[in-house]
Amino acid sequence: MLVNRRTLRIEWGQCDPAGIVFYPQYFIIFDTSTGSLFERTGLSPRAMRKKYGIVGIPVVDVGATFRIPCRFDDEVIIESEVEEWGRTSFTVRHRVLKEGTLVLDGFEKRVWAAPHPERTGAIRAEPVPAEIIASLSDSTGVTTVATKDDDKSNISTK
Amino acid sequence: MLVNRRTLRIEWGQCDPAGIVFYPQYFIIFDTSTGSLFERTGLSPRAMRKKYGIVGIPVVDVGATFRIPCRFDDEVIIESEVEEWGRTSFTVRHRVLKEGTLVLDGFEKRVWAAPHPERTGAIRAEPVPAEIIASLSDSTGVTTVATKDDDKSNISTK
Amino acid sequence: MLVNRRTLRIEWGQCDPAGIVFYPQYFIIFDTSTGSLFERTGLSPRAMRKKYGIVGIPVVDVGATFRIPCRFDDEVIIESEVEEWGRTSFTVRHRVLKEGTLVLDGFEKRVWAAPHPERTGAIRAEPVPAEIIASLSDSTGVTTVATKDDDKSNISTK
Amino acid sequence: MLVNRRTLRIEWGQCDPAGIVFYPQYFIIFDTSTGSLFERTGLSPRAMRKKYGIVGIPVVDVGATFRIPCRFDDEVIIESEVEEWGRTSFTVRHRVLKEGTLVLDGFEKRVWAAPHPERTGAIRAEPVPAEIIASLSDSTGVTTVATKDDDKSNISTK
Predict the structure, then answer these.
(1) What is the residue-wise DSSP string for C122-142?
(2) Other C-beta atoms lying within 10 Å of the C-beta of residue B73
(3) Which end of chain D, N or C, is less surrounded by CB atoms within 10 Å?
(4) What angle in degrees, to the nearest 10, is found between the helix axes of B24-38 and D24-38?
């Protein structure tokens, strides 16, 4: 799988009176990290929504295990990759590392969600496009989704 | 003016490593307090948007002065009232009190914003309805905005 | 087990551009709900830290399953109870209900954490006091922890 | 004055149901931007606290004017500089730009706060060190504060 890496510095406002990161903040980091991973397809969030007619990729199940606390000004690396592809859902694994040590890991199970064809405001899970799976399954990161309309194939290789 | 009061307990996640409320949290409290004040018109946020065709009451100017820090588990009272009515805008004054002492105060200047008639996605400031002004100017709180369609007048007195 | 209930209205700032609650916000709600549950022992957070010499009850494992989205201005009830007592840890189950329907549930596994006797800044898990377990295991809510120093027993019944 | 620039992408969780940044989020950005500016002195937050025996630089007065909304995935630049030096306080001006256009600006007035010598837990404003003023007043950014103990002078030039 393609592993996306982000480097962050822990901010003052992310920490609590115990001096450590307030744990819900990690899920904000997870959410943005998944967005960052999906941009590796070559599609911006806006482009992805438009191209496939989805409303987004809402979370249905999440979890995390906290091993070592992080503190203000710590530099951390977040590694994110799809751990498992379902038909209409997928699971992203996130690992947060500090000086090479795993400080926490967690997952987000999300669905590929389009507007429901009959019920206004509701959503319906739809199959994840093969080209998205292909792109995020390629650990080299060279397989992206073509965005040109005249493309015969939907998958391009940089 | 009508003064709306809310009582809150400071939460762990609102505080920073210095053990005091992280100041941006007060603006989240301000935002919700303005919503709470406007419900005193008798209209829910949804009803107000629908009745007047507005997209909301976005903030254009804010400020706050911090006098005394608040800590986890402190009980505070937030007093909110419209301080000044403009034609298409208004200013809400918020005061936060702890054990009767002013710990901070601030303001939000907001506009009465409808969708722009020509530019998609843009907004246009429109006059604040007289009945909204009447309701929130009545310190007794009895003047509310009628929501029944068959109402002759838009202002009712409880 | 003792079930603690809180009623909340979903705030504007808790929702995302899809119009639904941004999921990390639920963990902020969980965190405060656990605090609220533990106050049913009769001890404030401050008193509990002082009485038992703990630094807090940090989270080691969390998870949640999202079933139905919540939107701005929805009224929700959060029900929280200890689901399982370990020796030095415990698991709190949270359920969020909207109009009687379960919209999401989740858990927080937390440890009873005292300062480490040797390593400055580190913590050590210690046994959860029997009187805390007794109090939060009593579904009637009448068993609280006595706070008077002259109390023979540490458990009182209201 | 030294102007510090940060580039950020607006995150999903920073936006509200109107699709624009929830305004308190800008103050979180301000807070981190001030931290980033002060690191240009060559001192980490931790080093600055230790070197000068301060507890931090808490905010006493803030304000912001919002001109153009920012949306999810917008790239913004935050420019921060000290606008005015008081004796024991200073004001940081923040400007947020999108594609070269000012979208909002604001300020934070902060104090140089040391522990109060007599009252436990309280703070006392103290004079801002001349070398901090010198460093952040140098628009070239080359004047930093020496951190070596054996340094004769406290100001170094890279």
Answers:
(1) -EEE-PPPHHHHHHHH-TTS-
(2) 16
(3) C
(4) 170
B17/A72 Cα distance (integer angstroms): 8
Strand partners, C156: C144
Contact across the interface for A31 and D44, Cβ inside 8 Å: no
Give the least confident one: A144-158, B40-54, B139-153, D60-74.
A144-158
CA distance C92 to chain D (A): 26
What is the C-alpha separation between A18 and C56, in angstroms, rounded? 8
Query: Which value does ipTM take for this structure?
Result: 0.92
Q: Give the chains touching B; criterion: ≥3 Cβ pairs < 8 Å.
A: A, C, D
| Interfacial residues of B (vs A; Cβ cutoff 8 Å) | 12-13, 15-19, 22, 24, 71-72
Interface residue ranges in chain C relative to chain A, Cβ cutoff 8 Å: 18, 20, 22-25, 27-28, 30-31, 55-56, 58-66, 69
Q: What is the 3 state secondary structure string of chain A?
A: CCCEEEEEECCHHHECCCCEECCHHHHHHHHHHHHHHHHHHCCCHHHHHHHHCCCECCEEEEEEEECCCCECCCEEEEEEEEEEECCCEEEEEEEEEECCEEEEEEEEEEECEEECCCCCCCEEECCCCHHHHHHHHCCCCCEEECCCCCCCCCEEEC
Please count the residue pairs, one from chain A and one from chain B, whose beta carbons lie less than 8 angstroms apart: 28
Which residue, chain included where needed, has tokens 């986890």?
B72
Residues A62 and C65: their CA atoms lie apart, in Å, by: 7
The verdict on whether A73 is a catalytic residue reads no
What are the start-end ranges of the E strands in chain D? 4-9, 59-66, 75-85, 89-98, 101-111, 113-115, 123-125, 143-145, 155-157
Dist CA B91 CA B81 (whole Å): 8
Task: Report CA-CA distances (Å) from A156 to A135, A138, A146.
Answer: 9, 12, 6
Give the residue on B whose Cα is nearest the Cα of C9: B32
Q: What tens digit of pLDDT does each residue of D43-73 get? A: 999 999 999 999 999 999 999 999 999 999 9
